[in-house]
Design goal:
Radius of gyration: 19 Å
Bound molecules: nicotinamide-adenine-dinucleotide, (2S)-2-hydroxybutanedioic acid
Low-confidence stretches: none
Shape: globular
Structural class: alpha/beta
Strand content: 15-25%
């Protein structure tokens, strides 16, 4: 989609992901060299001084395309007339926690922000990054009057992780890998699907003959990668998360090349038997003009179907603990 200017809201802009996200948005890398960018940065009041420091650094980059920066602790001000909302602001998990453990703490943030979106933005597309991302997205969508298809949650980081694992195992560059799907929840139940993936255009299952690895270690490595990063860094992923968020935005802004798809958690329309309305990661193609569709007809083995049902069940369980936050 080509635009003269774009307004992007980033919540939690003073946090670690924000610090990796804002400079790349302002540089023109995401929306192209002909599109001016306005950043609408939302933070909680105590974090505003730190955010002012980040804005000083944005100024000091003298980005030619950066038209305007709004800094606020008011969601309606932040979302005024925006084209994209990147919902990052929320607490990260610590070691030994699952992302779902954050739901009662982070979920309520998305009630107010969903309502504020309805009032302030009629043309926004929303990406929820804050965990647990799928169910937070469900909460935001339920509290907003924007069309459901405008909402999505981030599973692109999982997709990128799966690409890297497959490429390393096959001894090929990441660019040789395609058609990997992340099904379901951004959690340890997600199903990274190698059965439909390709390497150099051939089925990945033919190129990688170690099927025990594909059905075992590959899946668990991707499922648990976030926890492994926390164990190693003492903090959750930030640069790779920001990178994936920008990949997600760019994929929805452009037309997906024929024969390809990308993974994003979007409201289920019942495809593949998944309960309607759950925010479920599917293979998705974008038309580059604001629309997208879920790729139909991928074959799922009995092994895959069991995994898909398990991750759907987890999303149903998460939904059942936030019914008071849904309208
Ligand atoms: P961080 O703690 O460094 O930053 C979060 C920021 O959000 C803080 O500056 C905080 O002040 C702000 N914040 C908190 N409540 C807010 C609110 N109501 N409105 C606006 N801002 C608010 O955390 P981070 O490392 O940037 O991670 C942010 C979130 O992203 C976490 O929930 C983390 O688990 C999640 N995450 C998701 C993925 C994914 O792939 N979906 C990947 C990495 C991290
Ligand atoms: C990730 O996948 O790295 C993030 O969701 C952070 C986390 O808590 O694992």
């Amino acid at each position: 989609m080509s635009r003269k200017s774009v307004k992007v809201a980033v919540t939690g802009a003073a946090g670690q992901i924000g610090y990796s996200l804002l400079f790349r948005l302002a540089s023109g890398e995401v929306f192209g060299p002909d599109t001016k960018v306005s950043l609408h940065l939302l933070e909680i009041t105590p974090a505003l001084p730190a955010l002012e420091g980040v804005v000083m650094e944005l100024d000091d980059c003298a980005f030619p395309l950066l038209e305007n920066v709004v800094v606020t602790d008011n969601a309606e001000t932040a979302f005024d007339g925006i084209n994209w909302a990147l919902f990052v602001g929320s607490k990260p998990r610590g070691a030994g926690m699952e992302r779902g453990d954050l739901i009662r703490e982070n979920g309520p943030i998305f009630v107010g922000q969903g309502r504020a979106l309805s009032k302030a933005a009629s043309d926004a597309r929303v990406l929820v990054v804050g965990n647990p991302a799928n169910t937070n997205c469900l909460i935001a969508m339920n509290n907003s009057d924007l069309p459901e298809e405008r909402f999505g949650a981030l599973t692109r980081l999982d997709q990128n992780r799966a690409y890297a694992q497959l490429a390393q195992k096959a001894g090929v560059p990441v660019s040789a890998v395609s058609n990997v799907t992340i099904w379901g929840n951004h959690s340890a139940t997600q199903y990274p699907d190698a059965e439909n993936a390709k390497i150099n255009g051939k089925p990945a299952m033919e190129v990688i003959t170690d099927h025990d690895w594909l059905r075992g270690e590959f899946i668990s490595t991707v499922q648990k990668r976030g926890a492994a990063v926390i164990a190693a860094r003492g903090k959750s992923s930030a640069a790779s998360a920001a990178n994936a968020a920008l990949d997600h935005v760019m994929s929805f802004e452009s037309k997906t090349p024929d024969g390809h798809w990308f993974s994003a958690a979007v409201p289920s329309d019942g495809s593949y038997g998944i309960e309607k309305g759950l925010i479920f990661s599917f293979p998705v193609v974008s038309d580059g003009a604001g629309g997208y569709s879920i790729v139909q007809g991928l074959q799922l083995s009995e092994f895959a179907k069991e995994k898909v049902v398990a991750t759907e069940q987890e999303l149903k369980d998460e939904k059942s603990v936030v019914t008071d936050l849904l309208r």
